[in-house]
Design a protein that fits this description.
The structure is a single chain. This protein is of the alpha/beta class and about 270 residues long. The protein is about 45% helix and about 10% strand. The strands form two sheets. It has a five-stranded parallel β-sheet, sandwiched between helices. Strands 3-4 form a two-stranded antiparallel sheet. α6 packs across α10.
Length: about 270
């Protein structure tokens, strides 16, 4: 479902991590891709995450994406060495030769809190590209059939984008219009796109709006629900996942409590 979230002038306020935007947008709070999808994508947009420090196993996957010729674009306020190039410890040639594999072909430094503005700028350009293509009798950029069949609220999103002026987008995102146009062109030319994001997108006051706009961008070109495309919120912190696996959570569902009692033979506390 499309959202029509206006964005604020800036945001550098710390806030609890949120995944509210994803269930509201696509019905689930988790990613729609598997590792195999990275073998088939044409483009990977990495927004607000640093795999070198936070989820290093992701680097191996991105390395394979780069080596087969797919495009990786990094968008993050901090230029992270791990997203620029990666020396694989499992590659004897790279280790012995002190060489590395280039990951991100382009690295854009968005202003802190400016992600939603940047995403709306990309979508605004896509709408323009779509209308120009149709006027020339060429195939459109927007997947209208997918939007009609699988989404709702597109007209509201379109109206919101059209009413958002470029001066505000550039001010809030901290990016040049040419940079946003380059991202839009890459996205428009890619048949299958995966967008990966981390806590740089979610861990502040406007995280929900950021996630919703990422979902909107993917839905505009039907990049949900097909091989090699989708949304990929990166978790990857092993201790967090392990805690959840064994039931360490502040709000355990009744099904988990019942399962613990059945398997381990004791009645766990209900509060």
């Amino acid at each position: 479902e499309y959202g029509t979230n206006n964005f604020p002038d800036c945001s550098n306020m710390c806030h609890e991590p949120t995944s509210v935007g994803l269930p509201e947008s696509i019905g689930v709070g988790k990613g729609t891709v598997e590792l195999e999808d990275f073998d088939h994508c044409d483009l990977v947009l990495c927004i607000g995450h640093n795999p070198g420090t936070n989820h290093p196993r992701m680097l191996g996957t991105l390395r394979e994406v780069s080596k087969r010729g797919a495009t990786i674009v990094a968008i993050n306020p901090l230029r992270e060495r791990g997203l620029e190039r990666f020396t694989s410890p499992q590659s004897p040639i790279e280790m012995l030769s002190m060489s590395s594999t280039e990951l991100a072909s382009t690295y854009y430094k968005v202003r802190v809190g400016g992600d939603a503005a940047m995403l709306k700028g990309v979508m605004k350009i896509l709408l323009t590209m779509h209308e120009e293509a149709l006027s020339k009798g060429e195939p459109g950029v927007i997947d209208e059939a997918f939007i009609t069949e699988h989404t709702e609220g597109f007209d509201a999103l379109k109206a919101d984008l059209e009413s958002t002026d470029w001066e505000h987008i550039l001010k809030v995102s901290g990016m040049a219009r040419e940079e946003i146009q380059h991202i839009a062109r890459l996205y428009a030319s890619a048949e299958r796109t995966i967008i990966c994001y981390g806590m740089g997108i979610t861990q502040h006051q406007y995280g929900t709006q950021n996630v919703q706009q990422i979902a909107n961008l993917l839905l505009m070109r039907g990049n949900i629900g097909k091989p090699g495309a989708g949304i990929c919120p990166l978790r990857g912190h092993s201790n967090v996942q392990g805690d959840r696996t064994v039931g360490i959570t502040e709000i355990p569902p009744q099904s988990l409590l019942d399962g613990i009692e059945k398997v381990f033979g004791f009645h766990p506390p209900q509060k």
